[in-house]
Amino acid sequence: MNKETHNDFPIDVVITWVDGNDPVLNAKRALYIQPEQANEKKIAAPTRYANNGEIYWCVRSVNKFMPWVRRIFLVTDGQDPHVESRIPLEIVDHSVIFRGYEQYLPTFCSVSIEAMMWRIPGLSEHFIYINDDFMICRPVTPDMFFPQPEHILLHARKASVFWTKVWHAFKFSCGRSCRVNYIQRMMNAATIAGNSRSFIRLAHTPYPLLRSTLEQFYTSHPERLIQNIQNRFRSLQHFRTDEICYTLLLGEGRLHLQPVRPVLMRYYGKKGMAQLEWALRRVTRPGSSVCFVCFYALDQVSDDVYARISQFAEELLKE
User: What is the pTM of this model?
Assistant: First the structure.
């Protein structure tokens, strides 16, 4: 297979990254944050910006298991993790993708940044968005994301808007949920894209996207772009840009859904060693189909748990 193309089209990877240990960034955020937002985990808690070295595992995993990627774009706010990559890697500052909208910077919200990713100069039509806490854990092929040109294969499922709202209202009444949550952003996006009855229930996986679909939507609806970038922190007004893309493509017959659990392993920082070992066995057992691993909130894990995760990652990624 040609390293740079598959079915004659290039595929790029976009990774968003922030170093929450940077005193310059922390001072900048402190100028804008409201007291009630500071420790709200769904809005601006420190764990949202924590840096525990995941970006190095993420980039190395793309190099090892997705060598057909043309270019990696690393989107940051005046920062550089100085990560090595055989695949050409370019640092893209927020000021580049927010050109013409500089009044909405600085932003501390991934939703706003994701709304502008399609504006990365030189970005390919087919690209894959990956959070920095992600690792690819076995070889994957381009058709796992794009089975044919202008079509997307997504590991997710459809869900009912009505019953999801009922469930989250119950969780909120019990103090187990926040109104500003990622599920609400999915439902907001589906409604905006023309589907008020169901939405694509996204899991925490790599997200294949089409640049032209996002450009056409935001160019046709500039007020929606402003809606998504005008708040520096997460708010009830936000909606997910990737959900917009998927809802539109679903209506056109260009979105193909497959179950997510067989290909995803996710470990939350508040879980202990026993849960970690159980999760890692899902990846390492013979015949495993897990391709994507996410270690969430590593700033909250114990030293021994972090050491075990680091051991796993280094063994997986060694050449």
Answer: 0.90
